Every structure is written in C-alpha cells, then in structure tokens.
Amino acid sequence: MRLSRYFLPVLKETPAEAQIVSHRLMLRAGMIKQASAGIYSWLPLGFKVLRKIENIVHEEQARAGHIPMLMPTLQPADLWRKSGRYDAYGPEMLRVSDRHDREMLYGPTNEEMITDIVANYVTSYKTLPLTLYHVQWKFRDEVRPRFGVMRGREFLMKDGYNFDLTKEDALHAYNRHLVSYLRTYERMGLRAIPMRADSGPIGGDYTHEFLVLADTGESEVFYDSEVTDLTFGDREIDFDDKAQCAAVLEEFTSRYARTDETHDAAAFNALPEERRRTARGIEVGQIFYFGTEYSEKMGAVVQNEDGARVPLHMGSHGIGVSRLLGAIIEASHDDKGIIWPEGVTPFHAGIVNLKQGDAEADAACEALYKAMEAHGMEPLYDDRNERAGGKFASMDLIGLPWRITVGPRGLKNGVVELTSRRSGESEEMPPEAAIEKLVQIYAGHL
Amino acid sequence: MRLSRYFLPVLKETPAEAQIVSHRLMLRAGMIKQASAGIYSWLPLGFKVLRKIENIVHEEQARAGHIPMLMPTLQPADLWRKSGRYDAYGPEMLRVSDRHDREMLYGPTNEEMITDIVANYVTSYKTLPLTLYHVQWKFRDEVRPRFGVMRGREFLMKDGYNFDLTKEDALHAYNRHLVSYLRTYERMGLRAIPMRADSGPIGGDYTHEFLVLADTGESEVFYDSEVTDLTFGDREIDFDDKAQCAAVLEEFTSRYARTDETHDAAAFNALPEERRRTARGIEVGQIFYFGTEYSEKMGAVVQNEDGARVPLHMGSHGIGVSRLLGAIIEASHDDKGIIWPEGVTPFHAGIVNLKQGDAEADAACEALYKAMEAHGMEPLYDDRNERAGGKFASMDLIGLPWRITVGPRGLKNGVVELTSRRSGESEEMPPEAAIEKLVQIYAGHL
C-alpha cells in the first residue's frame, strides 16, 4: 500500500478520553474511531489487524477439526425463555422489538441458538463428535463502557460449542480447545496463561480463562513463575488423540495459576517463595465444560448405541477477537507507539523514502515495494512529500515491526537501512539483502 | 473435508414455507436455517459460499484501489437526525434504546456514518480521491420477509463510498465502480447487466442497478439482446485511467437495458424487433453518484487548491453479498439441485467412494483427497457407509461442479470417473488425469 493512497488519519495529540495505553494508541494510530459509547468504527489500519487476528483464529480452529458457520446477531427472545436466561440476563442484554412487536435481542452469546440448531438436525450419536463455532459481532450493554475495544459494547467474539455423547468425549473437546487456544495466542505473539476460572452464571465444573500479563489488566493474578517458561511452540499434535491433548492440558495447568476470583492463598503460599508471582492480567479467552444443562433445556437429545435417548454433553469456548487488539498493544508497546508482533502486523514492513522526488530514491523504493509483494509480503510505502522525522514518527506510532529506510546517501554506497521496531537497531545492507532478511523473518507468518 | 466429520444436514423433504427455488435448495442442502422471520443462521456449507463471495468482493475492491474498513452494526440516532433521514426512513428502520435510553438503530446503510468519519479527519484535497467500503451486516425491517436470503431482514452487504473534490472525479469513481462490479459478478459466474435505475429516496442523477436474469426475479426488465453478448473477461484495465473506465461504461450501458421503474416504451420499441427482450431480473448491486447532499449536511468539507472550502462529491455503491447466494442459485440449478459456478463453489470437487471399507477404494479416495489438497483445492469426500444412490443425490443437491467416483470395478482397470454436474457427462480416466483436469479447470479460481 502506498501511504499517499491510504486512509491513515494519525493524531498528533493524545485523546483526553482514553485512560489506558492501548486505547490511546489505537486512536492516535488511526485504527478506530468511536461511533458511540463502547461502539467503534474500525478504520482501515485497525480493520486490517482485526482481520489478521480473525484469520489466525479460523486457521487454528480448522486445524483442530472445528467447523465454521455463522449465526445472526439478532435472536428471538423465545429461545432465551426456553433456557430461562431471558429474564435472568439483566440489563446487559440489549432487547429489541421489531415492527410487529416481536421481542428480540442482540446476542451476547449463542448457547441457546446453537443448541437449538443441533437439537433440530442431530438425532443419532453417529453425527458426533461435533464442534461448531462462529466469529460474530456480539453486544453487551455495559453500564460504563471504557478502555476502547477492551471493554466495548459491540465486540467481535469467536464462540465455539462442542456436542458430545459422553462426559469423557466432552472433556476431550475441552482439552482440544485448550491446545488449540495455546497455538492461537502464540501465533499472535502473546503468552496467554490458562488459569483456573470461576464458572460464574453459566455454570459448569471445568473452566479455564486465558490471561495475558499486562500492567493494565483488569484482574489480579497469582502464579508459579514456572508457568511463564512454558511454550507450545510448533510441536506436532494429533487433535483426535485424547492422551496427547490431555498431556498438554496437564503440562499447562498443573502449576499454580489463578485469578483473584479463584485464588487459594494457602496453595499459593505452599510454593517456594522465589516462584510466587503476583501481576495483573487481561482475559482473552475462556473454555468451559458444562455438561447437559443446555441440551436438556433445548432438547438436544440423541439415540446412543443402545437406542436410548440421552442429552448431549456440551461446552462453550470463546476468544475475544476485537479485545485481542487491545491486549496485544497493552503487552507490546513503548513510548513511541505500538510494536506489532510479526504474526498480526497490518503491514510486514514500512518503506520510508527520505527524499521523495529524487529519481534514484523513488526507483529504489519502488523496486523494494515490488520485491516485497513478489514474496507475498505487504509493504506500507510512505511516499508522501514529508520530512523524514514525521515519517519515522508515524511508522513508530503504527508499530510495523520492520522499516526499510531509503535515501540518496545510502544508495550511493548501494545500501538501505533495515530497522527493527522492537530493538531500535538498524543495519545497513544492499536492498536485496534486506528483502532476503524479511523473507526469513516472515517465513512462518505468511 | 471428510463428510463423516462435517455438519451437512441435507433434507429429504421440500420445506413447505419456501416459495422460490433458491430458498428451497438452500434449506434442503443444509446451507441455512431460519432463526426468525427473515433472519438466518448460515450452516457450514452456506457460510463457506458466503465467505467465498465476500472474498471475491474484497479482492476486486482492492484491485480497484478501494480501502476496506468496518463500521459497527449499531448507529446513534443523532447521526441520522443530522441528515434528516431518522424520521424519514420509516418502519423499515429497526430502532433500539440502550439501558441509558439512548436512541440507536441497526444500520440499514452507512452514508451518514462514513461521511461523519471523513468530515472528522479529511481537511484537505490532498487526501483525495478516497473510496472507503465495508462488508457488514445490515438490518431492514421488511414487513413481509420472504424468499430466504433474497429478501431477508438481517443481510450482508458491501457498501462503498467515494469522496472526491469535483463532480468529474466523482464520476470517474462511479465508472470505476461499474468496471469493478462487472469483474466481480463475472468471477462468480454471473452475467449481471447494468441497467439505468431510478434514483429513489437517496437522490442523485447517476445510478445503475446490476440485474441477473432469472425467471423468479422481482423486477421486469427490458433490454436489447446485444447486451447479453457483452463480457468483460480478463482484459487488463488501469483503474486510475479515466478514459479507460469511461469507455467500459459506454460499452456496457449505451444499449437499451432498463427495469420496469425506468422503462421507456418508445425507446425500446425503436429497437429492431428481433433484438427486443423482456425478462425478469434479480438486483444484485447498485451504483450511485449523488453529489454533495450528504457532505453538506454532515460537514464533509475540504480546502481546495485555491484555499476555498468546498463540500465533497460523493457516491455510494452496494453489492448484496448474502442475497447473491440466492441469485446465483436462481440462475444456476436444475431439478436435482444447485449447480455452483467454479468461482464460488464451497468445495472444488466431491469424491464418492462406491464401496466404503474396501481397502483399495478407500486408499484410492485418500490419495485423490491428498492430491487435491496438495494442489490447493478443497475436496469433499463422502466417506460415509451409505448407498451410492444416496451419495450421488447429496452431491447433486449441494451442487459441487465436479465429482470423482471411485469404485473397485474401475480401479481394476486403473480408472476413476470424473463427472460434470452441469452437463451430467462422465469420463473415465486414471486418478492422476482427473486431478490434472481439475487443476486446469480451477486455474483461474484458486
């Protein structure tokens, strides 16, 4: 993309209404604009990152064998009356009446609707196991929306639901989701720690939240320092293999890691003192196994091998897709702006032309631009007629992890400069070498 | 995808509530399920086609230089008061109050919101030209929703908005959208004819609708038979070149083609009789130039080169993304089911195993499956233990354009059968030759 043809309205001033750094930086970097309280327009740069995150979620769900679909944003109230949640949900549910005074609501989650769908079509155990998910806009009418996309009202969530014949199968689905989520967050450059969670109003015995450590997190967290050494990495795993998935769950959840809601001071204090850690965390996902509660209420019953009719064992599993942009920025920024991890960066590198209009500099930038595209990378070329200082400040603010700086002086020696946003270190090299280095860096991310 | 692990709830019976063929076939093929009147869940097969169509729209918008973003579904009423449309819009607008009694609405379109965004950030002509678009769910509270996704209430639309300094520039944006839409529809296997449209309540002098000819279309259309001979094809075009885009507009709109709303009997009857055609059509898109009306009301004003403050010239341009599934099926089906064009098919070919459990047949199917994936194609392998007749009927119903049939008898002679859904013709060939033929067929579509 050439910046002269893009729409990137960066702000010089820090918006007064933003209390946390990710909100400030998303506004300043021209990623979002508030439409009304807790409701945002995603400007081109923000939308680009949102789509990258959504795509990673889709790819990892596919790897785990989960099946994508899409439920609508508006749901009939009657579905929620069947589960008993219509009245119970309270003022966070946005209730709507249509022109025929039919009662509807803007879905905050989809347990009722998906269970109704499965109840409609699935009659035999032979269709199982089955995990369906969607990535759809939800609405929760927070009384005080704040912190930008971190606690918005209209938000994008991936929510998935497993349907299994037995508790044992459903717990495998639970473990499979845990493995899949570990991969998902790592691809986004995040270390998200599964922590024992409170099952809350949705009920259920098994639930973990995934928390990203950040000073601005909404939850206080307590953990064994060893949990931060764990990495899933690129290990091969067979998602159908119950033992393999259970072993990963064991590895990642056997050490102490809890939020303030489930904190057990005695267990925490039993750890060696040097391994006890207290910090703040941002919740970016949650997995649940809750048994047959919804399938009984919504009639999701199948015939088992013996011909008996049994309710399905279910769980629901969510990733806060739009919230993740805030969480990533909270975990990865400095005083100049955002620092995108390579897996989610909106553009793979910025190209800064120090002397726009200089025939040689222009030609070198164009050649770099085309070479990046030829390798499947997306460059952002600042081709505006601006001072170098302003161009650098914009690139630092929007946080592309790599920048290639091109100027007449370097070109005389046959070199450009490749700069890491994270370390700030620059290295001079021929243009071809800069491209080669970027190809290596992004090898696992294209 | 292996069918034993997919969720494809095909129906044997024809649902009574569906009046038109696309609605019937989408229900029977397990693509959609009604959630409430005019609101649908997209089951996995339907969602897959929806995403394919959305991706084609995004790719063609990118080619034309238009910039993607995303506006929220809920909008503040005050924005619409500014344009005067809040009261004017009538009962098709779904109005919502939040917990603080703030008036909102579920967006039926986005002229107000996008103009407000541009008014906020764009102050100079230097940022122009600018075309922003999004693909987002909309809501129109139709009094009698029907025909499935063809006239739903919650529907997915691409709507784009151009902002230009002069009428001349805005008309180039208009022409550019026309060219881009021609490409878009052709990639989906559709012949969509631009027809002079009525500008309706949105106002404006220049507007064309794109209509797909189909017996079940909602509009009566009148056209010169020569328009159906026109094809955009894969010609190269420079979307920045005003003359090139204007020439395409001229080529595709100079012959008579109108809907009943703008029909001019005298002009039509002036055509040679053998070229006069009357038919029915489905509207799948519309382009508009409407001048400075919204920019004046919403304050989208910039400084021009002389320092004077002038309102921007705008247009809005829409493609009915979810409706397109219905339109494609109306235009491409037979009495056995859907016939997907190669550009939008949910899977590139079906693999039917005539004798599941036969070691040789199973191995041959697995090899074909892996070979298709290795070539970037997605197969749907019917690996269920069902009769061949049932497998064929399901494949015909869901409409994959190609089927590979594998059985012990053929394998003895080293062949499988490749069948065209459209022509019904089958050809025996070695498995490698079938793969090679599919690679050629899909060369332009992967």
TrEMBL record, chains A, B:
GO annotation (BP), single: prolyl-tRNA aminoacylation
Residue ranges of domain Aminoacyl-transfer RNA synthetases class-II family profile in the record: 33-341
Gene Ontology cellular component annotations, sorted alphabetically: cytosol
One Pfam family hit: HGTP_anticodon
Subcellular location: Cytoplasm
Keywords: Aminoacyl-tRNA synthetase, ATP-binding, Cytoplasm, Ligase, Nucleotide-binding, Protein biosynthesis
MF GO annotations: ATP binding; proline-tRNA ligase activity
Keyword Ribosomal protein assigned: no
Primary site of residence: cytoplasm
Highest taxon, organism lineage: Bacteria
Catalytic activity: tRNA(Pro) + L-proline + ATP = L-prolyl-tRNA(Pro) + AMP + diphosphate
The protein's Enzyme Commission number: 6.1.1.15
Enzyme class: ligase
Entry-linked InterPro entries: aa-tRNA-synt_IIb, aa-tRNA-synth_II, aa-tRNA-synth_II/BPL/LPL, Anticodon-bd, Anticodon-bd_dom_sf, Pro-tRNA-ligase_IIa, Pro-tRNA-synth_IIa_bac-type, Pro-tRNA_synthetase
Similarity comment: family membership: Belongs to the class-II aminoacyl-tRNA synthetase family. ProS type 2 subfamily.
Role this protein plays: Catalyzes the attachment of proline to tRNA(Pro) in a two-step reaction: proline is first activated by ATP to form Pro-AMP and then transferred to the acceptor end of tRNA(Pro).
Subunit structure: Homodimer.
PANTHER family registered for this protein in UniProt: MITOCHONDRIAL RIBOSOME PROTEIN L39/PROLYL-TRNA LIGASE FAMILY MEMBER, PROLINE--TRNA LIGASE
HAMAP family reported in the protein's UniProt record: Pro_tRNA_synth_type2
Protein name (Swiss-Prot/TrEMBL): Proline--tRNA ligase
Organism: Litorivita pollutaquae
